[in-house]
């Protein structure tokens, strides 16, 4: 019922109260709405919930979107890494083939093609290849971030960007190379002696689980000894530094070389089997050349072709010559040095066989060439026998030092008390292969 007497809404706490009074009559009461509003706690929870709802939704949305962004960023990195690695492999191929001028362009095109093939739909900000030291390929991608719930709080659109740089780890050039990728064993060390590659690397391209097989008690020293497949080091054999597995394959350093044309026979089935001094002229030796029985043979400068037959030096005989090359062609064309033979040959510095002391074409049949049994030899130049299984067996010794000796074979075996040194040329034509132990990603 209406209150009489002083108004309940007096004072400055509620100026909006209507204290209207009837003329001459009692005080009329009207509810003080403002004070009632101030004192009323009904609905507070709803008000607070309404106040915090918007930022709460924003935070939840941000968490959801962050997961989306993380996935989006990972996908960008995957595409960028794949592209940079593919580009770098193309770059290394081009460098190995001698195309240093066009290597970067080819690598960048390969990387760009990988990005397109990924279907990532990203913006390509940068694709750059460098043939410097070390070679590298850089890929930079960006993509508009997927914004769903968090856009309530952060209306601005943002981009996600990633950078992938693939870098090749290079080691000194390979001067001992087993080329065949499918060989059961690329390089077989079964020795009690030593193999030394001075300032250059030893490499097996075989992709098998015995790409390099190390046995015996001997030692192998090189700038790097590397297998494309798996390298095994058993028994007491020592590698300095440790042999590596999973390296990048090296390319044939003479892949662009073509052997000179072979003319008709200059001699047939030549056999020098008695003691004495023999001086031979360059030419085509059909059926090969056999030097036995203590014969001392000196070669005049030039090209000696062994056609359809081997070059053998056995039984305390010797073979020597400067500025000479030996080309093996046809069936049974191989080399066989052994039986206390002495071989001292050096390659020419010019012409189609410049720097090459013994060679066979890439189209030749698979053969086995052997240097064995206590022979003393100096082979100064490149031994290029891509279809030969080359065997250093017994006790060949490189006691007559050569300025450079490198070898490329289908497979290579070192066994027995072999003592052999290799080194790449610093002056003559160098056919050592650029070698890389792997690719790593730099963030």
Note down, in words, how this protein is organized.
It is a single chain. This protein is an alpha/beta fold. The chain folds into 3 domains: 1-40, no CATH class; 52-157, no CATH class; 173-442, no CATH class. The protein contains 3 helices and 27 strands. The protein has helices spanning 33-39, 44-96, 103-118; strands spanning 123-130, 136-144, 159-178, 187-191, 194-198, 201-204, 212-216, 219-221, 224-227, 231-233, 238-240, 267-272, 276-280, 283-291, 295-299, 302-307, 311-313, 318-321, 324-329, 335-337, 342-346, 356-360, 367-372, 376-393, 405-416, 419-423, 433-442. The strands form 2 sheets. Strands 14-16-19-22-24-23-20-17 form an 8-stranded parallel barrel. It has a 4-stranded parallel sheet with strand order 11-8-5-26, with no helix packed on it. β1 (123-130) and β2 form a beta hairpin. α2 runs antiparallel to α3. The longest helix is centred in the first third of the chain and has 53 residues, at 44-96. Residues 1-22 have low confidence and may be disordered.
Highlighted features:
443 residues, 40% strand, alpha/beta, 3 helices
Strand order, biggest sheet?
14-16-19-22-24-23-20-17
Largest sheet: 8 strands, parallel, barrel
* Mean pLDDT across every amino acid position: 86
Order of helices and strands: HHHEEEEEEEEEEEEEEEEEEEEEEEEEEE
- Provide the β-strand percentage band: 35-45%
* Residue windows where pLDDT falls under 50 for at least 5 positions: 1-22
Gyration radius over CA = 41 Å
Count the E strands. 27
- Helicity range of the residues? 10-25%
What would you call the structural class? alpha/beta
* Multimeric state: single chain
Termini gap = 82 Å
What number of domains? 3
Basic shape = elongated
Please count the helical segments: 3
């Amino acid at each position: 019922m209406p209150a009489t007497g002083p108004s309940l809404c007096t004072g400055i706490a509620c100026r909006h109260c209507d204290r209207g009074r009837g003329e001459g009559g009692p005080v009329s009461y009207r509810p003080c709405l403002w004070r009632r509003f101030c004192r009323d706690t009904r609905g507070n929870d709803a008000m607070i919930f309404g106040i915090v709802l918007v930022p709460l939704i924003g935070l939840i949305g941000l968490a959801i979107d962050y997961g989306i962004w993380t996935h989006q960023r990972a996908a960008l990195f995957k595409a960028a890494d794949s592209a940079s690695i593919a580009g770098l492999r193309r770059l290394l191929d081009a460098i190995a083939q001698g195309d240093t001028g066009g290597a970067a362009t080819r690598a960048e095109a390969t990387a760009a093609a990988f990005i397109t093939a990924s279907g990532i739909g990203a913006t390509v900000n940068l694709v750059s290849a460098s043939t410097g030291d070390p070679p590298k390929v850089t890929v930079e991608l960006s993509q508009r971030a997927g914004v769903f719930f968090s856009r309530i709080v952060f209306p601005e659109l943002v981009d996600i960007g990633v950078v992938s740089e693939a870098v090749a780890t290079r080691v000194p050039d390979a001067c001992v190379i087993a080329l065949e990728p499918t060989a059961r064993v690329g390089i077989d060390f079964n020795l009690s002696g030593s193999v030394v590659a001075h300032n250059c690397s030893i490499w097996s391209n075989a992709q098998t689980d015995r790409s390099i097989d190390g046995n015996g008690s001997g030692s192998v020293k090189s700038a790097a000894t590397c297998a494309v497949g798996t390298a095994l080091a058993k028994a007491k054999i020592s590698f300095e530094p440790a042999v590596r597995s999973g390296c990048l394959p090296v390319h044939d350093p003479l892949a662009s070389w073509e052997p000179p044309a072979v003319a008709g026979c200059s001699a047939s089935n030549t056999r020098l089997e008695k003691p004495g001094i023999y001086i031979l002229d360059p030419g085509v030796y059909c059926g090969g050349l056999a030097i036995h029985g203590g014969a001392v043979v000196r070669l005049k400068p030039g090209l000696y072709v062994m056609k359809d037959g081997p070059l053998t030096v056995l039984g305390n005989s010797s073979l020597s010559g400067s500025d000479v090359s030996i080309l093996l062609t046809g069936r049974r064309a191989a080399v066989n040095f052994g039986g206390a033979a002495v071989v001292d040959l050096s390659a020419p510095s010019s012409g189609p066989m410049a720097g090459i002391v013994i060679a066979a074409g890439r189209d030749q049949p698979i053969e086995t060439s052997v240097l064995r049994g206590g022979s003393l030899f100096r082979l100064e130049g490149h031994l290029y026998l891509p279809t030969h299984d080359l065997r250093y067996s017994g006790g060949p010794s490189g006691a007559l030092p050569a300025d450079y000796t490198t070898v490329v074979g289908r497979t290579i075996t070192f066994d027995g008390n072999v003592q052999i040194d290799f080194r790449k040329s610093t002056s003559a034509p160098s056919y050592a292969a650029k070698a890389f132990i792997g690719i790593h990603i730099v963030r």
